[in-house]
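Run: sequence + NAP -> complex structure.
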Amino acid sequence: MPAPNILFAAKSERWIIYEPHLRHALAAAGISDTGLTTDTDTPAEIDYIVYAPNSPVQDFTPYTGLKAVLNLWAGVEEVTGNTTLKAPLARMVDTGLTEGMVEWCVGHTLRHHLGMDTHLQGQDGTWRNDSVPPLARNRPVTVLGLGALGQAVAKALHQLGFPVSGWSRSAKTIENVQTHHGDNGLTAALSEAQIVILLLPDTPATENIVNADTLAALPKGAILINPGRGPLIDDAALLSALDSGHIAHATLDVFRTEPLPATDPYWAHPNVTVTPHIASETRPDTASQIIVENIRRGEAGEPFLHLVNRDLGY
Ligand code: NAP
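>> structure
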């Protein structure tokens, strides 16, 4: 098999981290790594682009022989609208990324479930023993988005005892998860949820899915956790629901503008926790294996994994 030409197009500091893992994974798959490069001088010869949306490569027109673009990120909203890209686009589904997201979501769910803040912020000599946390089995949690990440989070929360519901675009059957789908299923998914986790992609159909109406569909005192994308939330509606107490707390990892400006009201709100888009990230060792598996598939004429539907935007 001739060596495929693989362009690594991401910030230069990422190349130093990824290069050994990609070479190792290529060797393990029996694929020559001599075509692995960061050199953009001969675009017509490139077969695959391992791609970060913040890379300098934004015009794919010169890449006339491209077989696929393999995104390093799970979110593809910055690529789907690129009309110069005609080749197949695969998003990142990485076991390491998923593990990290499960740990972050479980951690923040348990924080709110156990009421940890009361004691972390109450070390003032007052013996606050008036409430003991309920059991997980009495705390319904809903996950909006039942893809690679949402399903893994839903399963982990079920294993801890939480009654878990979920919502997706298409109908799904997932063991131990009460599933809802489509526009008609959203209210049912929200109506009992004491904790809601957003793991939807950012698409035209999901923008502002958390708005005054959907917030009102939640029980009073619900908690919102957003490691998905900032545009999923109508920020004014959420701030209003937080001010009224209808939403007790929002833990937000992603925002319309990142970094979140220092003047943004989320920073100062007493019932908001801001984390700086660190819920999880692609892990170079496990991600390199999935990237190379897609290259192997491309070279063998097999279908690529995790292709993006450009019409749906994810
Ligand atoms: P995925 O596998 O593509 O899953 C997306 C899920 O959302 C699917 O269940 C899909 O429904 C559902 N969905 C899409 N559009 C919908 C709509 N209009 N109505 C209802 N459900 C809809 O994506 P993933 O890998 O789980 O990742 C989810 C998102 O997490 C990413 O897009 C990214 O924005 C975010 N993320 C954040 C971080 C972070 O550090 N904060 C890290 C990684 C990823 P179907 O199942 O019916 O297709």
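>> summary
The chain has a mean pLDDT of 98. Residues 95-114 form the longest helix (20 residues).
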